[in-house]
Design a protein that fits this description.
Elements (H helix, E strand, L loop, with lengths): L6 E2 L8 E2 L6 H18 L6 H5 L6 H9 L1 H6 L2 H12 L4 H10 L8 H13 L10 H10 L3 H10 L7 H49 L11 H9 L33 H10 L38 E6 L8 E7 L7 E3 H7 L4 E9 L12 E9 L2 E2 L9 E6 L6 E3 L1 H6 L2 E4 L4 E4 L23 H29 L4 H20 L1 H14 L19 E2 L22 H13 L3 E3 L6 E6 L9 E4 L2 H5 L11 H8 L4 E6 L8 E2 L9 E3 L2 E5 L9 H12 L8 E4 L2 E6 L2 H14 L1
Parallel strand pairs: 4-10, 5-9, 13-18, 15-19
Antiparallel strand pairs: 1-2, 3-4, 3-8, 5-10, 6-7, 7-9, 11-12, 14-20, 15-16, 17-22, 19-20, 21-22
Helix pairs in contact: 9-10, 17-22
């Protein structure tokens, strides 16, 4: 399921962030409140509010939506921006659906105050919308849908219509608390009466059993030696005195036979019991609640020590997680080593959003009472993967398959597969469940204590450990290299095939070299405006796309000292400054922002040095533009489709994008001839690569991935034939 977005803000004076995910009315409200808190703490003017927080939307969809209509949104108010955000990204008719949910809500078994707060919170999300309920409408809704037991007390209280909604809710809250107290008192009285009747029934039964035990006429006589030998020979029970049974006398479910109807055992009885013995097929049974039947049978000499009728369930409080929740869900899992399946309730699966998987074969199951004529067989067809962990996260189960069982009486039933997969051993006497490979007890987890602080190791110890790690890595990697060499398949035929293809490709290029050179000259002549000697003047650059610099803290002024300029580079500085000023890319500045610049010599001593702007301080205070760059592996994989390749390298590509007039002051640099500022996108800016890559995607959107790829200022084109290559190059040049 889709993850819900969150609003994050480390401090009220820091810009908030809206993480990637689904936008809900609750998240939209939190985003609105957090942004307004930030505006209040920073005293941000209304005209700059949208642009100060819009880049905090980290979801690529919302970011692209904002950039597509940035000018209109920045020019409007923050309220207009939030309205546009809700209309674009909230569920269609969300306000109508939420109002319908509020109007259809009932108190049920919940406390009134808890239910009323829930409706108030839901109605608060509708504030400012036409679907919002005023206090009178909300009071009517609450009064019409309270539980039946509370309706009469509210009517008898005759609450005044002039009460505010808050006061009316407080009055009804007191009435509901009194109702809950009376209900708890009645429940306690009923429980006490039930326990009292149960004790009386047990006392009467004990008296009856005692009188029967001490009556000599109803007591069954002890086994004779021939009868005892006969029962041992034919796998019989010394208590019920039946042949060929699967239990012992201490676990006998039938009890001793009646003395009046008892006949001495003979060999004929054993043979008859053997002939009647049948093998019953065992089918999977569903989990049932414990049930105890006390049989009133006569006691025998084996009834000296008996087990209790029932023991407490082995419940393990554990944590589960899933795509629909951001944290963990606590459930009480029933550990049952008698179950051959791991079962999970369907409601838990829906709540966690676990992925459902189909079983290859449906699993049929019946009720535990096989002779119950009303029981209907049912089947399971889906399962999920889960890995429960302890409450303190000290122990986590290996991944198990849990079959989805609708209507399961427990949230999670951990049967044999869970115990076997995790090597768990259960001791019913001590009520423990411990893995074989550790001493952690799931049912009795240890109390965690805070770890003691350990001092930092000495430098000598660190060097010794580093040497040990390096030696271990060398041994491991050497063995790994040997294993790879042993299992690597060296097929001469495949290598020869690859070499043959490569030779054929080189021969193809060599045979068409003259034709490709001729087409190259023809394309340069036909598209001579695409290959000028120098990039155009700033007045000839397009104005529809500009580069923006958005600061995290607009009040922070960047001021850095200029680097020392060697004497031999002063002429180069003058040449570069004159070149950029004449082209309109650079102009004198009076900006309070100052960043240093310096020159780096190239390999060719006759060429002008490379100009470098040191915008590190400015970049640290710039909101990042997270437009992605293409993956190199994808470019190489697509290029492998072609036989002919062409590359276009753009000259000073960053200087072909204007910078927004409001952001020119941030680009000011200190040069040997004073302070200057860029009117085009300078190199070294934090978001310059993202802006240029976006321009390339816009220009070549229909061609990228099909016939070409663009990585910043480089374009590569691939084709299968010369004619196709001429066509593809023409398409790219026309798009540029």
């Amino acid at each position: 399921m889709t993850k819900t977005a969150r609003v994050e803000q480390p401090a009220p004076n820091k810009p908030p962030k809206l993480t990637a995910g689904k936008l809900t009315p609750e998240v939209a409200r939190d985003w609105d409140n957090t942004c307004k808190t930030y505006f209040m703490h920073k005293n941000i003017e209304a005209a700059n509010q949208v642009k100060m927080v819009a880049f905090g939307m980290q979801d690529p969809r919302l970011h692209t939506w904002y950039l597509a209509q940035r000018a209109a949104l920045d020019a409007g108010t923050f309220e207009e921006y939030t309205t546009a955000l809700k209309n674009a990204w909230l569920e269609k008719h969300w306000d109508t659906k939420l109002r319908k949910k509020v109007l259809g809500s009932h108190q049920g078994n919940r406390p009134f105050y808890e239910w009323a707060l829930e409706l108030q919170n839901q109605n608060a999300l509708l504030y400012g919308e036409t679907a919002h309920l005023d206090d009178t409408q909300l009071r009517n809704q609450l009064e019409a849908n309270i539980c039946d037991e509370l309706t009469v007390p509210v009517l008898r209280a005759n609450l005044a219509n002039g009460l505010t909604l808050k006061d009316w809710i407080e009055e009804v809250k007191h009435l509901d608390e009194k109702r809950l107290e009376d209900l708890a008192a009645h429940k306690k009285i009923a429980e006490d009466l039930y326990k009292s009747s149960k004790r009386n029934a047990y006392t009467n039964k004990t008296t009856s059993s005692s009188s029967k035990t001490y009556t000599s006429s109803s007591r069954l006589g002890p086994l004779t030696e021939p009868e005892r030998a006969l029962l041992m020979k034919h796998r019989g029970c010394f208590k019920c005195r039946k042949f060929y049974v699967s239990h012992q006398s201490k676990e006998c479910p039938d009890g001793a036979p009646e003395a009046s109807a008892y006949k001495p055992l003979t060999e004929t009885d054993a043979i008859a019991a053997k002939s009647k013995k049948t093998v019953a097929a065992v089918a999977p049974v569903g989990a049932v609640m414990p049930s105890t039947v006390i049989e009133e049978g006569p006691d025998s000499e084996d009834d000296m020590c008996v087990a209790p009728f029932e023991t407490a369930h082995l419940l393990w409080p554990c944590l589960l997680t899933g795509p629909s929740i951001d944290s963990f869900e606590r459930v009480d899992a029933l550990i049952d080593h008698g179950s051959h399946l791991v079962l999970i309730d369907e409601n838990i699966v829906n709540k966690l959003g676990l992925r459902r998987r189909k079983l290859h074969t449906k699993i049929e199951a019946n009720s535990a009472f096989a002779n119950n004529s009303s029981s209907v067989p049912f089947s399971f067809s889906e399962y999920v993967l889960l890995s429960p962990s302890s409450i303190n996260h000290d122990w986590t189960s290996r991944t198990v398959r849990a079959i989805i069982a609708p209507g399961l009486t427990v949230s999670l039933l951990l049967g044999g597969p869970f115990l076997h997969h995790n090597c768990l051993v259960i001791d019913h006497e001590t009520r423990t469940c411990i893995p074989k490979n550790s001493n952690y007890d799931l049912l009795n987890p240890p109390i965690t204590t805070r770890p003691t602080k350990v001092g930092l190791p000495s430098q000598r110890t660190v060097l010794k450990q580093r040497k040990m790690v390096i030696n271990e890595l060398k041994n491991t990697l050497t063995q790994r290299h040997r294993d790879l060499e042993e299992h690597t398949c060296h097929e001469t035929q495949n290598i020869a095939s690859v070499l043959r293809k490569r030779i054929d490709m080189l021969a193809f290029i060599e045979n068409n070299k003259e034709q490709l050179e001729r087409l190259d000259k023809e394309m340069r002549r036909k598209y001579e405006d695409r290959f000028p000697e120098d990039i155009p003047h700033i007045n000839e650059l397009p104005t529809d796309i500009v580069h923006r610099i958005t600061l995290k803290d607009p009040n922070k002024i960047i001021q850095c000292r200029r680097y020392n300029t060697p004497r031999k580079y002063r002429e180069a500085w003058d040449a570069l400054l004159n070149q950029h000023i004449e082209a309109g890319r650079l102009r004198p500045s009076s900006s309070p922002f100052v960043s240093p610049a310096f020159l780096i010599p190239k390999k060719d001593p006759t060429a002008l040095p490379r100009w470098v702007n040191d915008y590190r301080a400015l970049n640290a205070n710039t909101v990042p533009d997270n437009h992605p760059l293409p993956r190199i592996d994808e470019i190489l994989r697509d290029c492998a489709k072609g036989k002919i390749f062409g590359k276009i390298d753009m000259t000073n590509s960053f200087f072909q994008t204007r910078i927004h007039p409001d952001d020119i002051k941030y680009t000011a640099i200190d040069t040997p001839r004073g302070l200057h500022e860029w009117t085009v996108m300078p190199q070294g800016g934090r978001n310059a690569p993202a802006t240029h890559q976006r321009r390339m995607f816009v220009a070549l959107r229909g061609l990228i991935g099909k016939i070409c790829h663009a990585y910043l200022d480089d374009i590569i084109i691939w084709s299968q034939t010369v004619a196709e290559h001429a066509k593809n190059v023409k398409l790219v040049l026309d798009a540029l």
